[in-house]
């Protein structure tokens, strides 16, 4: 492990790690401040609903430990905007968001975000809750990687512009944006999130009470929940896996 500074915070960098999120969750009590963790190779990362990642050094695993009073939902939205800004600043590649936590470039996924809230209990007393925000950015994988991994709806920044990405420089830019947006009025962040949200206006499918429903995504409420219209009904979705219809009719 290498300890340094990144975006003004303590930065822990590992050559190989099971999961940057898991490391920060398990060691959170050792830190009194915001901490950033990255690694060259993450072997046991996960996304929402327990989806696993395929280990590859082309990906940037980036997790940030926040030990203050935050909402996991708010932080997911803030992080999505931060990743988009960081990618655009470093590469010039336009980035959008698939509600709630996927970053899309050239109509394919380049990043997933997983924010995990943890409350520890000691001697029957709940300690201050904290949140670990994890981001996995596809930076330098080649096209063969996604073919072999059978991930037709994913890509990397390298595949898009054929230029290698400095992963630590990207991590710094994302974190600087993250810290700035975290101190910004959430309503303003949500406005930018809406502008970047590729889900709005699209036909989507989601599961509600074990029923798959087709609907049109029309807006986000003040908490970032997705407002949809289906057969004369207005539905609000606050969680769950949403498949968005792409330009060729597929759901990505």
Order of helices and strands: EEHEEHEEEEEEHHHHEEEEE
Helical content class: 25-40%
Distance between the termini: 36 Å
What is the makeup of the main sheet? Answer: 8 strands, mixed
Low-confidence stretches: none
Count of distinct structural domains: 2
- Tell me the number of helical segments per DSSP (H or I, 4 or more residues long): 6
| DSSP strand count | 15
Derived from helix and strand composition plus strand pairing, the structural class reads alpha+beta
Beta-sheet strand percentage?
A: 35-45%
Taken from the alpha-carbon principal axes, the silhouette is globular
* Average pLDDT: 89
CATH topology of the largest domain: BirA Bifunctional Protein, domain 2
| CATH architecture term of the largest domain | 2-Layer Sandwich
- CATH homology group of the largest domain: Bira Bifunctional Protein, Domain 2
Strand order of the largest sheet: 1-2-3-4-10-7-6-5
Rounded to an integer, what's the Rg over CA atoms? 18 Å
CATH class of the largest domain: Alpha Beta
How would you summarize the topology of this molecule?
Elements: E1 2-6, E2 9-17, H1 20-26, E3 35-42, E4 59-66, H2 72-91, E5 96-98, E6 102-105, E7 108-118, E8 121-122, E9 125-126, E10 130-138, H3 143-148, H4 157-161, H5 167-182, H6 186-196, E11 203-208, E12 211-220, E13 226-230, E14 233-237, E15 243-244
Parallel strand pairs: 2-3
Antiparallel strand pairs: 1-2, 3-4, 4-10, 5-6, 6-7, 7-10, 8-9, 11-12, 11-15, 12-13, 13-14
């Amino acid at each position: 492990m290498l300890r340094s500074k990144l975006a003004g915070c303590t930065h822990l960098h590992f050559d190989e790690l099971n999961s940057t999120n898991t490391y920060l969750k398990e060691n959170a009590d050792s830190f009194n401040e915001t901490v950033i963790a990255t690694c060259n190779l993450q072997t046991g990362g996960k996304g929402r609903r327990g989806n696993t990642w395929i280990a590859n050094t082309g990906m940037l695993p980036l997790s940030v430990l926040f030990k203050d009073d935050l909402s996991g939902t708010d932080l997911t939205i803030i992080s999505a905007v931060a990743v988009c800004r960081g990618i655009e600043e470093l590469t010039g590649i336009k980035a959008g968001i698939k509600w709630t936590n996927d970053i899309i470039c050239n109509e394919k996924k380049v990043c997933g975000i997983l924010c995990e809230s943890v409350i520890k209990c000691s001697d029957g007393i709940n300690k201050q809750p904290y949140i670990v925000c994890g981001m996995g950015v596809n930076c330098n994988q080649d096209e063969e990687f996604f073919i072999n991994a059978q991930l037709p709806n994913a890509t990397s920044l390298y595949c898009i512009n054929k230029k290698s990405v400095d992963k630590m420089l990207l991590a710094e830019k994302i974190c600087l944006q993250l810290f700035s947006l975290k101190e910004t009025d959430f309503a303003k962040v949500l406005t930018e999130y809406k502008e970047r949200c590729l889900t709005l206006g699209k036909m989507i499918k989601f599961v509600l009470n074990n029923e798959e429903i087709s609907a049109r995504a029309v807006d986000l409420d003040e908490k970032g929940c997705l407002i949809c219209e289906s057969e004369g009904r207005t539905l609000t979705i606050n969680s769950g896996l949403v498949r968005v219809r792409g330009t060729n009719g597929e759901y990505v």
